[in-house]
């Protein structure tokens, strides 16, 4: 019996099945590009088609700018009219009044600008293709013409009410800054170089009051101190308290430097509590390391090195207050600080 032999499978010839398969795979990977749909149809706003709506929007924008001007004037009135009398209620009232007036000024200015853009400025969509950074002279002239066209479309020339109220709001807005800067007080070189301390003033505990006996200051302790007559500062009470705050500590006399021994009493030294970086209160004392720490920005002062800065952004040691004791053993100041207290943000001689 004869067995028929099947012909061997032949590879597809070029240009037939293989080409078709490759073409199909290519189409699957790179589908045909879709056509550009273009820009959506423009939807006209009421102000574009109704002159009365445009005038109404113009008056609304002008009213918002006028309210912004009123808010700015309110800031000035609050600064001038609500003076501090060193009471929390008065300070709170002044701060709230300034804050509310500033909110009115900024809010109305911003809302007015947004309302103007939404209702009156042109909102047609345009396509600008990328081109070289430096265009030709013709392109640059065309750009200038486009800017002029945009200025005309903005309607500043045709809408003097908006233009004038906007100019008024923007012109008034920076004026309160002058009062804020003035309210910061005199230059610190003169103001911070003199505090309530002077020769003969007793050291008193803060805030409970009461003069301090040298014998009551224990080794490793820290006492917050004010002049015992600080309440006599009157209207300047808060400012004087801020400058006169002192930390009182006791070290072993043999560990003290010469200056500390000279300006201290039996190991007791007094240093300004006001950080020389930004004026925060230095309130933390590490007994083991004799480090004073400012919690605001972590400036660290080494009491063993006359409160030299050993870490943090502060650049100057805490000033030391010279002290002594009276006949009854109470701690008393020998003089004011010999240098200005507080932050070192101005040039020193």
UniProtKB/TrEMBL annotation:
Residues 16-25 have a biased composition (Polar residues). It holds the Pfam family QcrA_N. Residues 1-53 are annotated as: Disordered. The keyword Transport applies. Keywords: 2Fe-2S, Cell membrane, Disulfide bond, Electron transport, Iron, Iron-sulfur, Membrane, Metal-binding, Oxidoreductase, Respiratory chain, Transmembrane, Transmembrane helix, Transport. Gene3D superfamilies: Rieske [2Fe-2S] iron-sulphur domain. The chain crosses the membrane at residues 61-82, 97-117, 161-181. CDD domains: Rieske (cd03467). Residues 263-332 form the Rieske domain. The keyword Cell inner membrane does not apply. It comes from the Bacteria. Residues 26-35 have a biased composition (Basic and acidic residues). It is a multi-pass membrane protein. Signal peptide: none annotated. It is found in: Cell membrane. Belongs to the Rieske iron-sulfur protein family. Iron-sulfur subunit of the cytochrome bc1 complex, an essential component of the respiratory electron transport chain required for ATP synthesis. The bc1 complex catalyzes the oxidation of menaquinol and the reduction of cytochrome c in the respiratory chain. The bc1 complex operates through a Q-cycle mechanism that couples electron transfer to generation of the proton gradient that drives ATP synthesis. This is Cytochrome bc1 complex Rieske iron-sulfur subunit.
């Amino acid at each position: 019996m004869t067995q028929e032999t099947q012909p061997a499978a032949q590879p597809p010839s070029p240009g037939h099945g293989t080409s078709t398969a490759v073409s199909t795979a290519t189409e699957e990977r790179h589908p045909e590009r879709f056509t550009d749909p273009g820009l959506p149809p423009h939807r006209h706003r009421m102000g574009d088609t109704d002159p009365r709506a445009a005038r109404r929007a113009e008056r609304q924008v002008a009213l918002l700018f006028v309210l912004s001007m009123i808010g700015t004037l309110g800031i000035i009135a609050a600064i001038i009219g609500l003076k501090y009398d060193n009471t929390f209620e008065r300070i709170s009232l002044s701060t709230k009044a300034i804050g509310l007036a500033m909110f009115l000024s900024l809010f109305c200015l911003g809302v007015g600008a947004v309302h103007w853009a939404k209702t009156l400025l042109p909102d047609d969509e345009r396509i600008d293709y990328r081109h070289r950074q430096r265009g030709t002279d013709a392109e640059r002239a065309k750009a200038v013409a486009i800017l002029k066209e945009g200025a005309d479309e903005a309607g500043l020339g045709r809408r003097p009410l908006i233009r004038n109220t906007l100019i008024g709001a923007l012109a008034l807005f920076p004026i309160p800054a002058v009062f804020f800067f003035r309210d910061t007080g005199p230059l610190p070189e003169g103001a911070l170089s003199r505090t309530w301390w002077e020769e003969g003033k007793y050291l008193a505990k803060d805030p409970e009051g009461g003069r301090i006996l040298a014998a009551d200051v224990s080794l490793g302790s820290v006492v917050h101190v004010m002049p015992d007559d600080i309440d006599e500062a009157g209207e300047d009470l808060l400012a004087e308290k801020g400058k006169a705050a002192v930390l009182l500590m006791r070290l072993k006399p043999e560990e003290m430097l010469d200056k500390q021994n000279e300006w201290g009493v039996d190991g007791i030294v007094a240093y300004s509590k006001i950080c020389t970086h930004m004026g925060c209160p230095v309130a933390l004392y590490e007994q083991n390391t004799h480090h004073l720490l400012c919690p605001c920005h972590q400036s660290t002062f080494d009491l063993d090195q006359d409160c030299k800065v050993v870490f943090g952004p502060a650049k100057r040691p805490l000033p030391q207050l010279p002290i002594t004791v009276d006949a009854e053993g109470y701690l008393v100041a020998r003089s004011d600080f010999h240098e200005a207290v507080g932050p070192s943000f101005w040039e020193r001689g």
